[in-house]
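Handoff note, outgoing to incoming analyst
You'll be picking up this chain. Sequence as last confirmed:
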Amino acid sequence: MYKEVRALDVDNVNIMRLNILLQQGVTAIIANTVISLITAIALYSAMPGNFIVGWAVMSVLISVMRLMLVVRLKRKLQQTVSSSSAKSYENLYASFLMVSGLIWGSLGWLFDSGNTLNQQMIIPLVIGGMSAGAVFSHLSSMRSFSAFVIPMILPVSAAIFMAGFQLESLTTLVYLFAVLLLTKTLHQRLLESLTLRHENASLVAHLTDINKSQSILLQELREKEAFLVHTFEQAGVPMIIMDEDFFILDVNNVACELFGYDKKILTQITMTDLLQPDDSFTVSAQYERLLAGDINQFTTTSRCFNKAGKTIWLQATLSSVRNETGGIEYIVVQAQDRTQQHQLHEDLKHQSSHDTLTGLPNRSSLETYLQKVVNDRPAQEHIFCFIDLDQFKVINDTCGHIAGDTLLKQVSTLIQKSLYEGDLLARFGGDEFALLMVDCSLQQAQQKLHEILQEIRQLKFSYDGYSFTMTASIGLVEINKTSSLVELIKQADSACYAAKEAGRDRLHLFSDDDSQLAQRSDEMRWVSRIQSALSQQKLVLYSQPIQAVTTTQHHTHWELLIRMVADDGSVISPGKFLPAAERYNLAAAIDMWTIEHVVTRLSLAAARGQDITGILSLIHI
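Most recent structure output, in case you need it:
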């Protein structure tokens, strides 16, 4: 009987598959368009420009047509659709995907063994990424997936073969076969899941109809019991039945495969025997509510281990089945293996908090940890410092950024080896490192930092026939109960700058009464005021005549003097802000502002008919 039901449900499953395909189609089309534009930009400088532009236009055009098709088919699916119509819609969508795949595959003819390795790798990597992404976006239609991936990979494989890379070409074909095999397997699992979903919906309606006739109740219940047993055993996800004390009553085949035990062994142990001790259901308040009847089910993520001792992350949904008196009959555990997703999440979490080059914590991670130290209002002594490599730009300019990256990794390893346990070294940006020394006195920190400076001096960095002697400048500041995150970073940066100004290759301790740091801080404030004055027109020009004392002058000469207007309207003399302007490369901007205003004034005077013949401007600032 249920074989007939499954046959009748195929039509509905096909429509469900088509709905999923169209729902994921919009995201796939947007991703296809974005990746097309990025690929065109990446290849434009190394490949024929006209071809790349034409290829990008065709790719975007077919994406727009696919989007229009998706919108049209979604409208049709809102109405009653037959199975044959659904298949024709699927074939139509697959044909558009084939055209899109051929457009991507045409990139293979740009593959040239004469290009650099980076340029050669762009096309295979993009094609491989597109085919991998298609696994998820077109999983519900094996026909659509094949129509997109095969025309995309085969031309690229052929082009790689023609370029003389036979082994690499074979690798792409193996990859194509593996992707097709994987997608077919996942597609089958999806079909099973959709069939199960539809059958469960039909089951609910069927159970409702049973109440209409007592005469067929027993027969229907027996049939349903057999069906549920079959569903339980053949489910594509691990399923476990246990009592309220966690003793396992039954498991399906997938659960046995997941844990590595046969059913006989699993039914002799408890569920807690498979859990990590700190992930037991017994400590879950949700489980207590489930037993009390406050909730019917809940979902939790727990760590388990299999027979080989490997950790498995399971997302389990626990549902209670009660008898007529309301007591617990058994608990159904439906699980999903989330080990790969968890590992991916952990990898992404690590990447978001660490520098990809050196593996050190990044700036965000350091600031989070430093803020925690500051919030704790430490009673112990802590030291925060900046370490900046001297003349790092020389290495980058001489040997390239790869050499600079190599040096940064060597220096980070060297510094880490010298630190106390518990110290935190982070890459703050560029050639600058930040170091938090925990439970460390000023004297201990200075001694350790001098050792680090000495080790950096002894580092002989060689690259591509060049040899460099390295030094570093270090600024340090003591952390106290009144310290704040922003102030500590500013103070350490100022101290590091002072070390560089004093000749580099040295330490400099921040102090509130340090005149050198106070001068720099004052100049930095003037930088902001100068920039604001330039943008808000708060610079003014004064003039005074220049009188000749020995000869008769034929023209009037004037000396122009520049001033700044403060927020309160007072006039600021140039002696206060010009030193900062010259130090921080703002003098040229002030010169341009002055010249523009003088020329503008002279032009306006000439336009009014005034005689400006022979005027000689002496710009004095």
